Amino acid sequence: MIDATRTSLRSLLAILAAVGLLSCAPFTMGQDHSSPQSTAPPPDGSTDVPRYDVATIKPSSSSSDGRIMMMFTPAGISISGVPLQMIVRDAFHVEEDRIVGAPGWVKTTRYDIEAKVAPEDAPKLEKLKMEQRQAMLLPLLVERFNLKYHHETRELPSYALIVAKGGPKLKPSAVPDTPPNPKPPDAGEAPRPGDGPGNNRPRRMLRLMGPGHLEAEGGNTEMLARVLSQQLGRTVVDKTGLTGTYDYALQWTPDDAPPSAPGGADSGPPHNEGGTDAAGPSLFTAVQEQLGLKLESGKGQADVIVIDHIDLPSEN
Is there a contact between 230 and 13 (Cβ–Cβ < 8 Å)? Predict the structure, then answer.
């Protein structure tokens, strides 16, 4: 289970990205999904992915205190206080800037969702990959929110995470990549080396110690790029060429200014890029000075999800 206060929502999204709840996977270009019955195939092409048999969807009862939670359960998924935009993003396995055309209420309205598969399908969930569990949200959005969408290729601003002049400052980690006979992860968790009955070996983890304070043990640069994507509201591509795992700490002054509009041509970097204020370094400065890496802005062709239509959810 993951929860957070309203003031740390962007930080929560970063953690979700790092543990795999917000991962990226390609989709077929030009595919139209205008029918309420249309669904997307599982990421690996398998058809043996169950659908949710029952689902209760209602406006969040936790909106007043800003707490949010998203947790995979043995029989399905439990969501509380989560903005619909975040659910849509998870279902498509893309970053926020790859989803365009959604009405404003999708970004602000939060929902509580309890969804379960049929009892005979519950054992299948244990064998699914994280991205397959996420993809199970898409039919739910199509059926209950009348979601209609299509794919387009657009030029989007992005960042490349590269090694800065002087080389990386990341400390190679002693945390093993894959321990022998690890236990299955708890629902909603990414596999964590070192887990297992009686196994006290260190495990890979990423912890947000507070706003603007990230620590990793056994983290790789791909994981870091996902976290940075969520903090910046723009896709960050790992181009460091680094293949190891590392222990590091990153501390910066969070930028509370709204991110640039997703999917637009964008005329410049987010507020405070490369700057430093009196309280501490910006995220861009911190990445370079503390990790020996650099965020380099650019543009490129990207597959985006265009939301053609979405309604308030149908009754339970």
Answer: yes
**To 10 degrees, the CA torsion angle through 143, 148, 77, 263?**
-170
Specify the amino acid at residue 114. Answer: E
pLDDT at 232: 87
Nearest residue to 163 via CA among 241, 247, 245: 241
Tens digits of per-residue pLDDT, 14-71? 444 334 333 332 222 233 343 333 334 444 444 578 999 999 999 987 655 667 788 8
pTM of the model: 0.59
Q: Which of the two residues, 278 and 148, has the higher pLDDT score? A: 148
Torsion sign across C-alpha atoms 272, 274, 276, 281: positive
Beta bridge partners, 57, equal 113
Tokens representing 308 are 């053609």
Q: Of the candidates 92, 153, 166, 162, which has an alpha carbon nearest to the alpha carbon of residue 301?
A: 153
Residues 168/240, Cβ–Cβ less than 8 Å:
yes
For residues 302 and 20, give the distance between their C-alpha atoms in angstroms, rounded to a whole number. Answer: 21
Amino acid at 210: G
Per-residue pLDDT averaged across 174-182, rounded?
57
Instruction: Give the tokens for residue 94.
Output: 């893309």
Only one residue has tokens 């054992």, namely 123
217 contacts: CB under 8 Å, gap ≥ 6: 173, 175, 202, 203, 204, 205, 206, 247
CB-based contacts of 123: which residues, under 8 Å, 6+ apart?
none
Residues 6 or more apart from 2 whose CB is under 8 A from it? 12, 15, 16, 68, 69, 70, 71, 188
